[in-house]
Design goal:
The protein is α/β, with parallel strands linked by helices and 697 residues long. Among the domains are: 2-148, NAD(P)-binding Rossmann-like Domain (Rossmann fold); 289-392, Orthogonal Bundle (Helix Hairpins); 622-691, Ribosomal Protein L30, Chain: A. Helices cover 41% and strands 20% of the residues. It has a 6-stranded parallel β-sheet with strand order 5-4-3-6-7-8, sandwiched between helices. A 6-stranded parallel β-sheet has the order 15-14-13-16-17-18, sandwiched between helices. The longest helix has 37 residues, at 356-392.
Amino acid sequence: MYTIGGIYCMLPSSESNYQPVKNSQTKLDRFLVCGLGSLGQHCVAILKEYGVVVNAIDQEEPKNWQVPNLLDLLEQLLIGDCRQSSILEQANISQCRTILLVTGNERVNIEAAFAARLLNPQVRLVVRSDKQNLNELLSQNLGNFIAFEPNQISASGFAIAALGDENLGCFQLEGHQLRVVKHQIKPSDQWSNKWRVCELNTLYRRVLNHTNNPSCLPQEFHQWEPEARLQSGDIVIYLEVTEQLKIKQLNNQPRYNWQQLRQEIVLGTWNNLKQKIVNLWQTSDRYQSLRVAIICGITVFFLWCFGTVIYSLNYPETNIIEAFYATAMLLLGGYGDLFGGINFKTPPELAERMPGWLRLFSLGLTVIGIGFVGVLYALLTNALLSSRFQFFNNYQPSIPKNNYVVLIGLNRVGQRVAALLQEFKQPLVGISSTAINADFLNKIPLIIGNISDALGKINLANTKSIVVVTDDDMENLEIALMAHVQSPNTHVVIRTYDRYFSDNVARLFPYAQVLCTSAISAEVFAAAAFGENILSVFHFDTKTILVVEYMIEVGDTLNELLLAEVAYGYGVVPILYQKSQRPVKLMPTDDTRLAVGDRLIVLANSNSLQRIERGEMFPRTWQIQVEKVLAQDAIFDGANEISLISGCKMSTARKLMNNLPGQLPIALYKQQALYLVRRLSKLRVTARLKPFAQDTE
């Protein structure tokens, strides 16, 4: 089981029995799509980009073709019920590698999955279904079964888009929180005019994209110059491990001793505590009573301690415990009990020997104590009564003051987006034209009623973003335009279902971020159809990025490759590597070689997955020219480094280092070659890049 944006999805229980065969032109290159709604049409289009044969089944020929020339992409379109064995046989289910069941009816999808499994025990079942418990049971019993719900897949994309600012994605791996950040270099940044792009890559960070043109980002990973100097205005997109930033920074300072490290930790803890206290003090009016209670409590506690000290100093024969309880009695209104009752006719010995100023101080303790303790009693009574009333009445949180998200449309997608934003600690306000279930009412501030009127009840100028996710494309566009008129600088996120409608809206209204639910979900369904495990999905710069898990198998296109070859050859970003049952490695190094049984998690787009599926790598176009060594021991170390990073045989590397100057007889990718040059330079070996000559032996 794994998650996509917090959604549980089931992996095949017999995954080890399923051996996907890549790059074959056999029956395993045939796929069947059942249901040609918006999602089904997009699935067909993406599957065809992989170069496979696609058949389709639908109850009737679609009236709305969201993908132009879809019929030309299909080898066969059958009109009928995909639950019927005869229809599935006509669609050659016995020769299909995967069947995608994406009709709008979950019951139809499940029944068709049963029929397909009976006709082809090996076919992979990719099902559209929101019944999580049933999906898990079917996965365990049917095997080679996976289920998704499109609306829930897209919810994480809307939540991340709502955060705006620099956040493009957020997901978890092996208990580590990772986020994708888009950062524009400012003149005051420590990176500006000092760092090269390649120097941003560390044990906890990986650069995904870099450009000096904010209006245009590279369409693929690694299309940036590693040696480029970061300048003000540059855009850098990178992945970072958020919860380990401070630890890594400390580890990168080897001169720290244990005492310094302890001081930093203590100082950091105090600073965090201080910041939390300030934030609590500056929060909304709902915490005003709490602030009053804190002031009263601190005052009473101070007077209690101060009175104990005063009485102990003036009456040495009295121990501190008696002074402690005497002060407490005075603060609780016991002046008369301590000094002889209310008629004062028989004052006790204590009162006779007490100086006048101390007796006046005692009276002051009683008066102040009664006041402050009375306030504490009143606040406690108010809290108890409030909680009692809230038990019978739904509690409605108040609308935040500023920097909050306005979420319009609280259907299943909207409620999932709201839950994710709450996980991100993002204040928000929900707006819905229809009534909401009672369980959701007291979770966030809500405005129920006409959406146009509701927009007038909030100050849109103080909002962080506006997310419109109703079930109607045109209504979403209308609401977004109204919101933009009232607050032109507010970030707007629009939900659509038609990809071409989305593209047109995005071009006409560049201030809006338009996300097509069907297009995003189709990429997940298509990738899952090839047996890939999709762990998460996020969206940036018109691209859907998938977090994909691979288990290296015999005959796999990734087997025996260096991670450098995987990264630069297929255009993916390796972010986690695990060999057998050993501990996982985040941000693994390029010189790691994959083997059968290894586990690899990468960031990839649809084009990257297609290249991996077909085994089509980008060409290697650079070569290393080794000029000379500056120290004799560098010959041995340099040969080791060349063999490790380039992947060539050790004998080839030693032959090169013993016959300088010379060229490495294999081609490399540019970033791989530059990394090797930098490593050789540290070993006092002079080397440079040159274009690869095809006739080099």
